[in-house]
Amino acid sequence: MTSSSATSDPLGRALTAYLRGDKSATLTVHTNVSEDEPLPASYFFRSLWEMPDLERRALEECQGRVLDLGAGAGAHALELQNRGFSVRALDVSAGAVQVMHERGVREVAHHNLFDIPATGEQFDTILMLMNGLGLVGTLEGLARFLKHARGFLAPGGQILATSSDVAYLYEDEEGALLIDLNGPYYGEIEYAMTYEGEMGTPFQWLFVEASILQDYAEEAGYELEIVAEDEQQQYLARLTLSAGAHDVNQ
Predict the structure, then answer these.
(1) Are 105 and 79 in contact (CB under 8 A)?
(2) Mean pLDDT of 232-240
(3) Please, which pLDDT band fits residue 1 given cuts at 50, 70 and 90?
(4) How confident is the model at residue 242 (pLDDT cuts 50, 70, 90)?
(5) Is 231 within 8 Å of 164 (Cβ atoms)?
(6) Which of 77, 97, 153, 155 has the fewest CB atoms within 10 Å, i.e. is most exposed?
């Protein structure tokens, strides 16, 4: 296994390989809380009817101008384009951005979500799917993002994001939770991806239970609605700025 570098992009390489015809291209996902798991590149290219119910519901809830964060290979952006939406798709992976260009996503940007330029452009829907709220990394990142998003969320706009409660990862055989209450929040998990021996830079990913998201939303001036849930402790959240909160960018 090679070490990561500033230019390593295992996700982009795997998506590109799949697009070029290697339908078996598969990433390996490493975390600090579970065994390594394979992640087929094909998952990022799924059609509407291959998507989980929560994702399909999120697409139904979209409105206006859409910003798709962590867009991957553009599956959601392309579906929304086909429905007539104006969509900008953003990803931190240079390879993913190139794949989206080649697949026909009309507007693609290569940014970290905290580095979105302050152009004054606003979006009616900010979309964060595939446990996409995890892009913020940590609870501190969640607070930072909710403040940051005010700068490009249109009046009356919404953030549609999926997340889940991963407390089950810390259950013992009797079902008791083995969580260090004095340590970091248990939903802050470290990830890394490997493709053909190349390991990408490790990154934090946040899984946040709904009650904690509620607290952070209120603190940042948002109202939270849980739009839908599934049997795997995953949920689709809608965050909208509370009345009078939109102009408070402090």
Answers:
(1) no
(2) 94
(3) very low
(4) confident
(5) no
(6) 155
Count of residues making up the chain:
250
Distance (Å) of CA 113 to CA 20, 92, 170: 28, 8, 29
- d(Cα 25, Cα 64) in Å, to the nearest integer? 35
Q: What is the DSSP string of the chain?
A: -BPP-TT--HHHHHHHHHHTT-TT-EEEEEESSS--EEEEGGGGG--GGGS-HHHHHHHHH--SSEEEET-TTSHHHHHHHHTT--EEEEES-HHHHHHHHHHT-S-EEE--GGG----S--EEEEEE-SSGGGGG-SHHHHHHHHHHHTTTEEEEEEEEEEEE--GGGGB-TTS-B---TTSS-TTEEEEEEEETTEEPPPEEEE---HHHHHHHHHHTTEEEEEEEE-TTSEEEEEEEEPTT-TT---
What are the sequence ranges of the domains in the chain? 27-241
Alpha carbons 224 and 238: distance in angstroms, whole number? 6
Token pair listed for 100: 């989206």
CA distance 183 to 212: 16
**Amino acid identity of 236?**
L
Residue 5 has a pLDDT of: 47
Q: CB–CB of 39/16 below 8 Å?
A: no
pLDDT confidence tier of residue 2, bands split at 50, 70 and 90: very low
User: Class of the 27-241 domain?
Assistant: alpha beta
